[in-house]
Write a structure and sequence with these properties.
This protein has 134 residues and is an alpha+beta fold. The protein contains seven helices and five strands; from the N terminus they run ααβααααββαββ. A hairpin with a 2-residue loop joins strand 2 and strand 3.
Length: 134
Amino acid sequence: MNCIKSNFQAPLLALLLATGTSLASLCAESTWRGYITDKQCADSVREDSNPKDYLKHHTKDCALMPNCRAKGYVLYTDHQWLALDKRGNEQAIGVLKASKNNSGLYAEVTGTKKGNALAVRTIKEIAKPPTEQR
């Protein structure tokens, strides 16, 4: 139960047993694929019905501007916005700087989801799937 704070372990364990939920499902590391962008620009398209068009063309120069870097980064995947933690933000900056693409950073993020946030272990740029390359 190392992903759960110790003062919550006993009550949480009782709840998990009562509901049939496994602890592994709460703490399991997963992988997501999608677009990484800065929170400042994401906020401007968050309510759009299809923000992917914007994300495909959002430039890395914009995402690396001081104001954008200061706000942090998000991953847009499966119609949801997932905020990256401090480690994820640091990795996102590194991946953006290293990218040979000038826009539309498509990445694979590995970590643990906590609500609408990701505790990131790794981020790597990957090729966009054929359906995303238009």
